[in-house]
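Researcher: Please translate sequence to structure tokens.
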Amino acid sequence: MCLGIPGRIVTIDDVEKKLATVDVSGVKRQVNVACVVNDAHPIESCVGDWVLIHVGFAMSRIDEAEAAETLKILNELGEAQAEIEAMRLSGAI
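Model: Translation complete:
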């Protein structure tokens, strides 16, 4: 399964290479933002944008509400996965 993880662009690191630093729940990573920039939305205007990140690329811009909902669901999935793993280890399933 492929997941896009929401993150917020905090800095533009290299305009030519289209690299930016993105904050994903407090973890900062450098990603390529070439897929989310164009003439109407140049790289310089991306700081503060929410994006979906997959394998080091910002694949699309999303709004803050969608980012929050996606992060909530991913956290819930993580909690569910931890519960299932705990049950598996205890022999309950």
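Researcher: Any highlights?
Model: The first helix runs from residue 64 to 90.
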